[in-house]
């Protein structure tokens, strides 16, 4: 092997190749696979040239890989590991030994696949999880298919758990078969190599495309069997309506051990699979590639009823199947666990398939839930390819257990950062395109919640959501905006459905939408009265009602918060309609706290006052009017109000948001029916 003098170029080339490969989902699943390049650098300690390998570290995605995602190791030391390797039973010890091979600070943490990259004697190595390659890797006669499709250019490697021994096996193949450009790793994926970066990339793509073309040409016409009557997809509207109606129940099932965020997919791939005769058999065989089943669990829960069944029948059957799923998972754990296995991690399904409707997938946050769904789509593609040519034969259940409960996998989970206080919670905040609602949505999202912003204008709601997505660098995985007039029952139901379809369910509702008309009794028209009461009293009743249905079906408790007002108890002139409807909201808090407590749902309220900054209520003319009344400039109105308070502090939207967080956060778990004043102290509005 010759050496590349310019190590900076080696890493840059590797990153460019990785980004190209990772950008196309046909090449590998999200965050799946790893790539490497070897070269030399001057060791600053000795002044000698040393051989190094740059390899994608643990975690991260090839498509977005940057230099900080690379581990850098000394090849002389990695090669020396072969002499101290104690054998396959103790191969895991080599992971710790890799830390002693790092060059300099070593970069990213080396992944379990590092040995394969370091030990194979080729300058550039790609290990990928393409659907087409895994289809060959999981075909019952994968070995003979490999030689039929690729001749002697690609070599079959029987399934082996990733690690040092697999690295040695592949290194041996490369030595024994000099004409080979790569291999199919049974049950798992592919590895390809080259002397230049371009050659490695060409070889990877050749294996992937050749496998795909062979499948396209030789697959039997209906790999998943004929369509089952009654299992055909519903119409798009029908699917979404049915999914929204089932989502709360299914999220409750997926969250029995710990709360989960959900994702819903009704892509053609999913609907076609679920419509066909072989789907129950194939789904029960489970997924095969380690990346796939680590995120999807060994197998999904499949509803065994046609889409023509009623919602009630489907819910009842799902509840029965959930009990069975948990028993089966416990039995799987018990069959394979040894005394030193990590404790069982939760028995609930991560993938729930509903024929005719689609797939629900779950995770600790939206991104994880979405990716679990993507991985199951990868698995469906794998099964279609394998069944098209042969019979789908995933790795043994005992091997899946050895990966799922691998000490190294457990250590990875233990290293995960502690979740944020509102992680997994799904919030709906009304009137959140502006002022207090917007600040509340921002705070809830910053504390880990997924947020649905509902407001009159779709554009403003989506802009507020996009601002949150950009601030947290999570896009629509953290916040979405929907149009909803809270005084319209159908619009409220549509907003709740949108929340449930976007994030799987609902945990937390903030009734914030409102507006203020300050008029004397004689000036208040019936239309004024109706508008104030429709948006606030009726609007929050409608939102609470639609949301409570979801909260009760989920069985995970929840929170409802009302942004009421100081004026709900304070009596002053020129406020009959506004203050009366605020008093109505305040009493809804007490009534619903009393009624919903048996479901673990807490209902509390906040009484703000004098929030001028950021408030649309004040900006819309009312602030100017009030300022004129008090003889101050409009821009000083907030400070003027502050001087009337006990604390002499100006109340800002984020102070209301702070109170919402306290009410729904991890500390006030035993408080319901409470109103919290956030007004900088107004004695006339003290609660008693
Ligand atoms: N600003 C204050 O001093 C103050 C004091 C006490 C209570 N409040 C209450 O706080 C809440 C928020 O007020 P803000 O000051 O942030 O006002 P804001 O005008 O900035 O925000 C209110 C939002 O509610 C939306 N909205 C109005 N009608 C709606 C409807 N029918 N459906 C959906 N959304 C609707 C508006 O479009 C707006 O985006 C209101 O309920 C208000 O009564 C405010
Ligand atoms: Zn792999």
Overview features:
single chain, 688 residues, alpha/beta, eight-stranded mixed beta sheet, seven-stranded parallel beta sheet, disordered N terminus, binds nicotinamide-adenine-dinucleotide, binds zinc ion
Binned, the helix content reads 40-55%
> What distance separates the N and C termini?
83 Å
Q: Averaged pLDDT, please? A: 95
Specify the number of helices: 24
In percent, how much strand structure appears in the residues?
A: 5-15%
What is the radius of gyration computed over CA atoms, rounded to a whole number of angstroms?
A: 30 Å
Structural class: alpha/beta
Number of strands: 19
| Unreliable parts | 1-5
Task: Write out the distinct hetero groups bound to the structure.
Answer: nicotinamide-adenine-dinucleotide, zinc ion
Q: What topology, given as strand order, has the largest sheet?
A: 4-3-2-1-5-8-7-6
- Gross geometry: elongated
